[in-house]
Amino acid sequence: MKTSSVLAIAMLIWGTIAGFHDIEADSILVFARQATSLPPCRLNYTTDVWTGCADVIAQFEITLEEFLYANPQLGEGCDGFKPGETYCVFRDSNTRPTSLDGNCGIQANYSASCVGSTFGDCCNPSGKCGKGEDFCGKGNCQEGSCEGGRYSTDGKCGREHDYLPCPPKFGLCCGGNGQCGNATAFCATGCQSGPCLEASTTSASQSPTPTPTTSPGGVSPDGTCGYNDAFVCKGSKFGSCCSAAGYCGDTEYECSQYLGW
């Protein structure tokens, strides 16, 4: 059935329903988009229970419009997003073309994707498409069907590096300097992510840095914002915008309409 026919049927149904109920105009647009046949999904992603719509958009570097197009069941504004569910990240008509020469990633200016290519669905740190652990494993995959999502491929991590987590090959802790490692210097004071150590487990010879006491809702003392303490970024030394991940900054990531506030 042609798209125009589907839309015509949707409008007819809308006209009938409107005679009985006062439904917002946006509803018919959502219905029509769901009724229209969509291209096949090229990459599905299963979210964690703590993952939000903005997190998926940031991780896969797509726009809200692209994500909603790929998942029309979410409605307008991602209102129907449910953490823990599986969603389509890329469909044929809203993605980069498939790599025809096996080149990918930053080395190819992200002009083509490995997903669906004859070389394999994963892009390794050298910018080549392939399959298996050397291409898809944690720390070996720039983009594509990466195992567990995107991880650091060069040992750099945290807020200065797109909030990438650390894979085992570099060490699981992301230190305050944005480098991955397993030593106390990475996992203790300043640790951004990973199996960070509590202050009580650090060496007794080290003098812990006093943590500023700031009341909930005050200016962020440590670069975190929102969530439990509801710290705000404006007026802090870390930046004026709060990202969806709960960190202050002044980049597009923190200040985007959909990824920050």
Automatic annotation (TrEMBL):
Q: Which cysteines are joined by disulfide bonds?
A: 122-136, 173-187
Q: Which UniProt keywords apply?
A: Chitin-binding, Disulfide bond, Signal
Q: Which residues form the signal peptide?
A: 1-19
Please give the start and end residues of each transmembrane region. none
What GO molecular functions are on record for this protein? Answer: chitin binding
Which superkingdom does the taxonomy of this entry point to?
Eukaryota
Record-annotated Chitin-binding type-1 domain positions: 101-148, 154-198
InterPro entries attached to this UniProt entry: Chitin-bd_1, Endochitinase-like_sf, LysM_dom_sf
Q: Which Gene3D superfamilies match?
A: Endochitinase-like (3.30.60.10), LysM domain (3.10.350.10)
SUPFAM superfamilies noted in UniProt: Plant lectins/antimicrobial peptides (SSF57016)
Among PANTHER family, the record links this protein to: CHITIN-BINDING LECTIN 1
**Protein name as annotated:** Chitin-binding type-1 domain-containing protein
Question: Which species is the source of this protein?
Answer: Periconia digitata
